[in-house]
Amino acid sequence: MRIWILLLLTVQAATAQRYRYPDVLDLRTAPPAGESIEANVFSDMGAWHAYALPSGKENNGAFMGPLLMDMQGEWLSGSFSRLAVRENGVPLNLPAAKANIKFYPGLLQQQFEIAGLVICQQLLFASSREALLYTKITNSSRYPRMLDVEYYGQTKKRMTAEASTLRVNGFVTVFPKDTALQADSFTYKALWKNVVIQPGGSYEQTQVQAYYPGETRQPFQYNFKTALKKNEARWNGYLSRYFSLASHLTEIKKRLAVKCIITLITNWRSSAKDILHDGVFPSVNYQGFYGVWSWDSWKQAAGLATFFPQLAKDNVRSMFDYQDDHGMVADCIYADKRENNWRDTKPPLAAWAVWEIYLHTKDKSFVKEMLPKLIAYHEWWYANRDHDRNGLCEYGATDGTRIAAAWESGMDNAVRFDSAVMLQNNNSAWSLNQESVDLNTYLYAEKLYLAKLSSLLDNKQHTYRQQAEKLLRLIRTQFYDEHAGYFYDTRANGRVQVDGPEGWIPLWAGVATSQQAKRVKEKMEDPAKFNTKVPLPTLAADHVAFDPMKGYWRGPVWLDQFAFGTSGLRKYGYDSLAAAFEKQLLENAAGMTANEPVYENYHPLTGKGLNAKNFSWSAAHLLMILKNKYRHGIYSK
């Protein structure tokens, strides 16, 4: 019976259709003006440009954008592509048409019925550089129709035209060869005159809109129907793969999962310029996030592995492409490598990400590729971030600044670092005068993951399990406060008694004893501290510095720390509390189960979405939460 149930679930997952999930994210907007890039947009296949749908009837037949995404986001146009149709010189009133405008996973679509005509526009990405805009006009009347069909638009930068091709700073549009193209510096018209459509017949055309950052190329010419089939199969594959792992989800939660998949795909950038492997931006909607960050990549990879393992692998590779000779991985990298941030790195979760990828792929060749790099990165921490050589590391920097050391923690302005100072370790390494519980717990987890990855390759020479056991004892004694019942960072003069998420990371890694976990759990479920409307804020609600609206890491709920918390609770048998927290998150975080974006973080008292929209690691952790990936870890209690 069990086998038949599994087969049934597999068949059901395999038939997942993207058309069941229209508008899981609202992509309707007015033509963008100014510098704002906060509109929800559509991109795919790692492309560096994006589009949106019209929000008002007056823009029926237009696609908003494109938004170009290089070192920063820039709208090339409020609406580069607008359709006009005339009959006997009289324009059809598209704003008055019966309209059906939808965003499906991987596809924008507008359909209009007016005056005995059915007009369908579809926009999809056929490659990492090229989008296709397909138009089909069907004559549903009883008599032939003669139409003039036109696309027109404008740009914010000067364009050039040659034959049927427009070029604007790396953005290239190729129209069909029979196009009458007129263009000045900032506007264009592409016209097809006297198009005759017989009753029941159709007129079809496809234009290619491509963006080549840092390149000059001529777009490839595609068959749209072939491209559409490939697009549909690819997206159905994403959904089928994920739902095969999470067949228990309700339809509401499935829509949330699809929204999270879309978020990660929209933030996917293919290799270009100085980004050597495909990676995922934190958010398309925030100018400062147009790069690839290290610990973002580890978390994104763990989520991506549930539906797109190849991108998960490349997301990890993109950071290790720039690993230096000492083993350090940069904080973040950009399409212009001169902007890469080497002032600090980020918390060590890379081996966890590679292990998660392996669990989904069983790809030992990827493990073999990455293991030496992971080992070098792990050893780098002890060579450069253990000031007193006692086996416990500190966050630090390469330039001696405290701000870079705080960045290295990932919790940029966390209260626990407010009075920390810098200590020099060597010519290019400084540490805070503070040993951090989360950092050493991550390093403990990394040792176990490195041991497991090494064992896959029959690599016996490493002693990471023994090292982990020694570190476990240090964490339990050095960082745990018996009186407070919580884990804290320490300095030479004592513990830094600030209640934050670092205190439950030892549960995530299985470091805490059962009694320690019980005390931490009691603090996590305390409504005065962490059991808020949206649970598990990054600073206890009763702390004087608690300020979710302005605090960034001083109060908002970040979904990575939330997920580490609920995962940790489950490791120690507190499943019901973890489930209750997850229920509160999904019900109380604004827009979670609506067609609103997932946010960088959330206000713990009101549920308001805060900071960057369409945030990648939020989406990645939601995918893992929804399928209860964290229910089973590699650690026992």
Quaternary state reads single chain
How many E-type strands? 31
End-to-end distance: 33 Å
Which sheet architecture does the biggest sheet show? Answer: 9 strands, mixed
The CATH class of the largest domain, by name, is: Mainly Alpha
Find the CATH topology of the largest domain.
Answer: Glycosyltransferase
Arithmetic mean of pLDDT: 95
List low-pLDDT spans: 1-14, 629-637
Total domain modules: 2
Quote the beta fraction.
Answer: 15-25%
Can you tell me about this structure?
The chain has 637 residues and is an alpha+beta fold. It contains 16 helices and 31 strands. It folds into two domains: 18-222, putative glycoside hydrolase family protein from bacillus halodurans (Beta-galactosidase, Chain A, domain 5), CATH 2.70.98; 249-631, Glycosyltransferase (Alpha/alpha barrel), CATH 1.50.10. Strands 1, 2, 3, 4, 5, 6, 11, 15 and 16 form a nine-stranded mixed beta sheet that branches. Strands 7-8-9-10-17-14-13-12 form an eight-stranded antiparallel beta sheet, covered by helices on one side. The protein has a three-stranded antiparallel beta sheet with strand order 22-24-23. Helix 2 packs across helix 3 (251-266), helix 3 packs antiparallel against helix 16 (616-626) and helix 14 (559-571) runs antiparallel to helix 15. The longest helix has 22 residues, at 224-245. It is elongated. Residues 1-14 and 629-637 have low confidence and may be disordered.
Task: Give a nutshell description of this structure.
The protein is α+β, with helices and mostly antiparallel strands and 637 residues long. 32% of the residues lie in helices and 24% in strands.
